[in-house]
Design goal:
8 helices, single chain, 232 residues, disordered C terminus, disordered N terminus
């Protein structure tokens, strides 16, 4: 299996890439299910972020170690077994030592197994790069994910509960409970995306293309060419 071009990145370059350049939440906008579900409070976001980071680092390292002896036809089942094993281990640790966090996150801990960030990095990076860089990629993507959900949860908790990490900031009469409910997650994410697009910041919804003037209504770049009538 050929080494990926991203091998040229250094260990710290991989970390920077995951946190800033390709932040999975704020830039790539993947892993949205846990992002929208567990960001009702900063404490939940930290717990989910660190859990996902631990799984990312461990699974990236092991997948990279076995990449050269993994048959291509069965690599996905092998990835699933590896990721599921580490998720189960993390779930047992949280349940034993952080029972309140375990109750708050609930079903979303075992659902880390199907988080597209983890499988995306396994397929796109760990399966094609050396162990050191794969660990760096896991750390970077995990911390980037953690940073993204902390930002979203802080906004939701501040506006909806009037507090951040237990510290009351906004009086009860000025709180908007909607933001700690499911619609609040979509509202905060849409506001952040709108700001990114307005400021022309990199994101999955604001890709730079030749000739793009960000006027989607009158866009001609992706229009399909008119079909030619038969016989002409």
């Amino acid at each position: 299996m050929e080494e990926n071009k991203t091998k040229k990145l250094t260990f710290f370059g991989c970390i920077f890439n995951g946190i800033i350049t390709e932040n999975p939440i704020l830039i790539l906008m993947i892993g949205m299910c846990p992002t929208l579900a567990v960001t009702t409070s900063v404490s939940n976001a930290i717990g989910m972020g660190l859990s996902t980071t631990a799984v990312l680092v461990a699974s990236n390292a092991l997948i990279s170690l076995v990449r050269k002896i993994t048959p291509d036809r069965v690599r996905i089942p092998i990835y699933i077994v590896i990721v599921a094993s580490f998720v189960t281990l993390i779930e047992f640790i949280i349940k034993a030592y952080f029972p309140s966090l375990y109750e708050s996150l609930g079903i979303y801990i075992p659902l880390i197994v199907v988080n597209c960030i983890i499988f995306g990095r396994a397929e796109a990076f760990a399966g094609k790069n050396n162990v050191i860089n794969s660990i760096g990629d896991g750390i970077g993507m995990g911390l980037g994910f953690t940073l993204g959900i902390i930002v979203i949860s802080a906004i939701r908790e501040l506006i909806g509960s009037g507090a951040v990490y237990g510290f009351s900031v906004i009086p009860e009469n000025y709180r908007a409970a909607l933001f700690v409910l499911p619609p609040g997650a979509f509202l905060v994410l849409s506001f952040l995306t709108a700001i990114q697009n307005k400021l022309r910041l990199p994101s999955a919804t604001n890709k730079k293309e030749s000739g793009c003037n960000n006027d989607c209504l009158h866009c001609t770049i992706h229009k399909k060419p008119e079909t030619v009538e038969e016989g002409k």
